[in-house]
Amino acid sequence: MYYDIGIGQWDKAPSADSLFKGIFVARFRLVFFFNTPERELVVNAPVDITMLEGMFQRRHSQIEVRFEPEFALAWTYMNPTGAPCFNLRMLEELRAHDSAIESCGGRLLHNGELRQIHYYVGGSKIEGIFSLGGNLENLVMLIKSGDRETLVHYAKLCVDNMYPRICNYNSPMTTISLVQGEALGGGFETALSSNVIIAERRARMGLPEIFFNLFPGNGAYSLLSRRLGMKRAEEMILSGRIYTAAELHEMGVVDVLADDGRGEAAVYDYIRRNERRRNGIQAMFNCRQHTNPISYDELLNIANLWVDAALRLEDADLKLMSRIGRSQAKRARAEPEATFVNERRFAIA
Question: What confidence score (pLDDT) does residue 348 get?
Fold first, then answer.
């Protein structure tokens, strides 16, 4: 007989003690979404069962994670060092953590009990900021040096983080983005990758890349087109406008509008309000990948277009990009006047 825990089938049911100590060989199916049609491969691979319990007990340097069994609720908070932007180390930590969740079928061991994650919330530990996107000072250095290899690596790592979330980590869970401050560029794209966006009224979101002659290359076009249609998505991208949470709620981009300081409470309210019909809602969200699918190849091809466009930027573009990058760095030191809005005024002056 086999013992099925959602990630594979065990040759025999493991004992409670062995769940904590053993490494077993599981027979499971890996589905590769990167080709059309999809390929399936059945493999034998060692699975460390201790990983199931340890994934929410590990300490990370740039993310914070926790699991609340009462609500079957997983949290991941971004807490980058330096500028409140994505960097390679934080992206690698996010991918490692999320990869563990995905490989275990969205399940974990909590106090010796196998639990399914029903809700996965992504947020930020930085006051007033969800994420300002890519670190522009670092990107300018890579562009000036013509370092295509590192730019491609960075872009691919972003896609490797985005795509599994768009697919709900191939698990029966609902993903939620909790935006309690500014979400710009890649930060806005990250928020869009979840099934549900809950935003506090103080939150502002937008895609400012067009101001330095670039475009958002990590899913904005695909995800906004899915929510609003292609024409509206292009208008948002080309305007470079920063929207309030209330405006985006009116447009249908933000799903739940919360009062300032009540974002986390709004998450619990959403769960309580929808728990009775959770299975049906989650299945409906999965329909998006069938009626309006976003593929890994689509995201990667757009990311490569972004790399090509970045390497074509001229000196005037890079100067403005550097200026906004310095504004990002000042936000790490909590200087209130260093906002993107100020830099945007400079750009259009």
Answer: 33
